[in-house]
Amino acid sequence: PLSIKVKFNYNNLIDLDKLKDALYKISIVDNYTLEEIDTNNSTFKIYYYGNPKKLSVELMRFGYKLENDQGNWALHKYQ
Q: What number of CA atoms fall less than 13 Å from residue 22's CA on the CB side?
């Protein structure tokens, strides 16, 4: 599998748990690790099959937007 490191902003720990549940349900995600966590940010390393576009489409199904800003990946929850 390929890997991608993404930063996720959250308002409370429930948001973080919901993201973990979504990652578990996405079939192309092989595994993930929570590498860093602080008050409102976390960094995940996601191991997945396919390409970033396919991962982005799968994450959209669960209400998350994957964005790339010059090699820095971020996940955002749709409002």
A: 21
